[in-house]
Structure formats: structure tokens, C-alpha cells
Amino acid sequence: MMQRRSNSETLESGIGLMSLKMFSIMPMTFWMKSRLKLCVARWKERILEAAAQIRYWSLVLFPFMNLTKVWNPVILDILDRLELIVNEKDVLDLKEGVKDRPQGRLPTTSLVEESSVYGRDEEKEAIIKLLLADGVTGNKIDVLPIVGMGGLGKTTLAQLVYNDDRVKQHFVHQSWSCVSVEFEVIKITETLYGAVTSQTCNNNITDLNTLQVKLKETLSGKKFLFVLDDVWTVTNDEWDLLSRPFESGGHGSKIIVTTRHEDVAGIIGTLQSQHLMQLSEENCWSLFSKHAFKNAGVTADLSLELIGKQIGQKCKGLPLAAKSLGGLLRSEPNIEKWEEVLNNDIWELLDKKNGILPALWLS
Ligand SMILES: Nc1ncnc2c1ncn2[C@@H]1O[C@H](COP(=O)(O)OP(=O)(O)O)[C@@H](O)[C@H]1O
Ligand SMILES: [Mg+2]
Fold this sequence. Notes:
This protein has 15 helices and five strands. It is of the alpha/beta class. It has a five-stranded parallel sheet, sandwiched between helices.
């Protein structure tokens, strides 16, 4: 099926191809490489789909004119160029399949240290209310997307909700799967099944069919909560396949999906997306100072505190930035280093689309 392309995807693909041009003049981080490969794969897939459609409609509409002769060279040329890009993978040191995560981001789990989380009370309550409500949409199972740029705190919010006592009491089964760049149906199913049965899947069950049948049996009539964390991309077909065993679950089961991409939410969400906002200035400062000064908001050095507050403001409510920069300046007595961070132009490049400060994804 032809997937709808949003402007943001076009932009993303464009960024991927631009990255290719730039690779000779700047070192490509793993993150950039994996995005590039993903973009190339998406482009190629779409061109092939488009080519098939053009061929089909040409035959239907102009059976006596062989329009495919006109189009084919164009498409073949594009495919050739894409092929060239894919073949550059050795130069770019790309590996088959995007197995690792973007540099600097570790896999996530459901565990969270709640005492170190600032704010998010309202967002947490709003989501819990939706999770505990049954039958709002008439669907047996609802999917709730949490959407926002990388480093904004989507995973953290999902963790807070997942560990709330009311939520734990409401659902019979809970499972957390860290999805990331590739939507690997088998791997996700294994994780979900492993959690609901408290078993690891490395012994007997290796094929998806057996896994799905077992998962379906286990979920039968039971209310479950699954979290699919950090979904970058998913197609309708992938989602249909993954979610088939879910249908046996109890009425009111929920799936939380955290994602940076609105189109992912559009494909699988059934409840209105929760668009996460930045932290308040106060909470952002608390987070920054906790990491910079050991104790939130407490420092013996007032001049450092003054600059720290300005850096905190420049984090624009992005927890990852506040945490990372606080950590960077921890135990740094030299005020010039603090000023350097404050006056760094890289702040102006805060990249809303791809989510993370360039300084952080290049680190
Ligand atoms: N409200 C918060 N208070 C304290 N730290 C936070 C908060 N939100 C996020 N963080 C921290 O910021 C970093 C990025 O958060 P994360 O939830 O992984 O973002 P996202 O999932 O949107 O990329 C993590 O290290 C997390 O611990
Ligand atoms: Mg996340």
C-alpha cells in the first residue's frame, strides 16, 4: 500500500541526502549514518511503489501507448543513483540493518527514579485518566501516542505512568518494549511475550507464528498495558502484524507509544496524541542545577549560579539538554568554561525537527 508522505518526511529524506554530500567534509556520526540509510531505504521503496503504479495506470489508461517507455528510463536513473548511494555504504562504514541505537541514546526500560523527575504531574494525571477510562472510543484496545522532540521527556513520562500504583492495579499484564529506529515485529513480540509470561524466548519459541499464538492465549480476556517506546517508523502492515494477538486482550487494554514523529502517531494512534511540552523554566533550572551542583539550586558560588541560570534558560525546557549540560559543568570551578557553554552559538541551532541539540548528537 502506498503510504502518505508528510512534509516532515520529505524534509527528513532531504536532510539524509544532504548528509551524504557532506560526509566527505565532516565526520558522520553513527546516528547520521543510520538516518541516512533509513532515508535511502524509504526513498527506494517509494520509488519502486510509484514505478509499479505508473506502469499499472499506463496500461489501464493508455493501453496502446507504451508510456512506460517514457517513464522507465527516469525511474531507472533514480534507482541507479539510489543504488550508488547504497553502495557507498562501505565508504560510510554502514552495516546491513540498523541494529544499534542512535549514538548516545541507551535502550530504555520501564524503571525510573521518580524522585529525580521534575514537573510532569499534570501530564501524568492526564494520561492516567485516559488509561483508566474504558470504552471512551468504543475500541476494545486503544493506542495512546505521546509525541514530542527527542530529549523532551516522553520516555520519562511513560515510565512515571507505567509505575503508578493505580495503573498497576488496573491492568493484569504490563510490558515495556524499547523499539527505536527499526520496527522489528519479532523482537517486539518476543519482548512483550517474555514480560507477560515472565519467560525469556530464547529456548523453544523462535518463529513469529508460535509466539503470536502463545501471546494471544496469554492475553485472552486480560486487560493489558504495553509501552512501545521511541517508535521511529512503522507501516500499516507492520502494525497489523504486530497487533494481531492483542485483539484477544480484555476490553480497555491500552498501548502507549512514544514517538518523535506525528505520522507514526497518525498510523497507529486511536486516542488523541499527547503533545509533550517543554519543562517550565523553574523545573528546567532545578534539573540543570541538580546535575551541575550536586544539590538542586544550591551552590556556594553565586557567580556560577548566575551563569547557570542563564544556561538553564537556554535549555528551553529540554530536559536532555539541562541534564547533559549540568553534567558537563559538574565540578567545573572555572567560570570561563561556564561562559563558554553559555555563549556557544550552537544553541541557536537547536534543531526542533530531529529533536536533539546538534551538540549532543555529535557528542
Ligand atoms: N521531567 C524530568 N525531570 C528530570 N529529568 C528528566 C525529565 N524528563 C526527562 N528527563 C531526563 O532527560 C533525558 C531525556 O528524557 P527522555 O524521557 O529519554 O526523553 P525522550 O524520550 O523524549 O527522548 C533523560 O535522561 C531523562 O532522565
Ligand atoms: Mg525516549
